[in-house]
From TrEMBL:
Any one annotated GO CC term: cytoplasm
SUPFAM superfamilies: YggU-like
Protein name: UPF0235 protein SE16_03750
Tree of life domain: Bacteria
Pfam families on file: DUF167
Protein family (similarity comment): Belongs to the UPF0235 family.
InterPro entries reported in the protein's UniProt record: DUF167 (IPR003746), YggU-like_sf (IPR036591)
Length: 97
């Protein structure tokens, strides 16, 4: 399994440290930014739209319902910690491989 400095196990899910770049041309994973997974979002950081877009993107990427993805820290910051329920570290590695 690949080294995942931005992911750690948390009970029945994982915690991901992400660095968000809003107002990008398209929504996509853009690699690693320090110890965080960099994600570019098409949505602007206004009225929670970037947070909603982030959660929806991660839910689709990992094949879980939107309600399984929750921002636990950094609601108004670029650097966030996101909890994804029902996903393992191996799932994260497989999705990003």
């Amino acid at each position: 399994m690949m080294d995942l400095p931005f992911a750690r196990s948390d009970g029945d899910g994982v915690l991901l440290t992400v660095h968000v770049q809003p107002r990008a041309a398209r929504t996509q994973v853009a690699g690693v930014h320090g110890d965080a997974l960099k994600i570019r979002l098409n949505a602007p950081p206004v009225d929670g739209r970037a947070n909603d877009a982030l959660c929806a993107f991660l839910a689709e990427m990992f094949g879980v319902p939107r309600r399984a993805v929750e921002i636990v820290q950094g609601d108004t910051a670029r650097r966030k910690i996101v909890r994804i329920e029902g996903v393992t570290l191996q799932d994260v590695g497989n999705c990003l491989a």
